[in-house]
Amino acid sequence: MNDKTSDKTINDVNGKVKNGLPPALFLMGPTASGKSHVALEIAKQFPVEIVSVDSAQVYRFMNIGTAKPDQESMDRIPHHLINILDPTENYSAAQFREDALTTMHGITQRGNIPLLAGGTMLYFQALLEGLSDLPPADSKLRQSIENEAKALGWPAMHAKLCKLDPKIAERIQQNDIQRIQRALEVCLITDRPMSEMLISPRNPCLPYHTILLALQPSDRSQLHQRIASRFENMLDQGLIEEVSSIHERFAIRPELPSMRCVGYRQACLYLNQAITLKELHDMGIAATRQLAKRQLTWLRSIIRKYDVIEFDCLADDLVNQVCIRLYSLKTLKPYNEAYKM
Description:
globular, 2 domains, about 350 residues, Histone, subunit A, alpha/beta, six-stranded parallel sheet, about 55% helix, disordered N terminus
């Protein structure tokens, strides 16, 4: 019954949750924390469909560097919001929120539980808190910002943002090109600091009873070891060849959001002969560690605001701990009872 639910099961479940909000599981954690594995194991115990919360897995042909689930897993358990765009396309938090809510509605209509798993914390925040009423992207202005950055460098653009909006600049690192560009764009379009516009989100209502699960490492150094091993495995599996193939298939520019993803950015530099293979290895691992650090910072901010069930992602019995805790939740019992029929 993993792939589809009978009408009887749907009626059984809906009859027990009709007076309350349907549940949705949010499985959050940094890269290499084991989210995908845990999600698949949860799917063996509960009638879930997995919704990817990953700004890189939305892209087709980017499989190795994004650690997408294999085809067998996706055939066995329904997965959503994976492979929906070409690498030349853009995807925003606003679009993710719209797509995720539509997908979640369909899942609950089938009598299943949406399990949102990933590490793009901005997307989780967009669902939990809504989005501010920011202006849409302006392609001409964005190109102008990119041209200025080519002449001056992105650290200079970050310095410019510091003058226009010091609060938002403090939250963005100098090498975070996409966020610098967007913040400058908003400031220039609205003539207002982006930080002011983020104070009052719109459409914050989320029509689900959210169960938030966080995977965090008890020892950061062990997570770093996992990250290094994982990145080396990606290189062994053909990450460079994957990026080369994408370049042959599409008109790829380095500033595209897809090619700014960790691993892909460094592979592009290597293919352009800007760095050596050793530098690709070292820079890729360092960039992944920085990504994990940012993810953990976001995760801590979510934990401060919401009731989150926390787990040590390094625990040997992690899956068992997660499933036992989920079994104890009254909200999920009607689903599990129907699933086991």
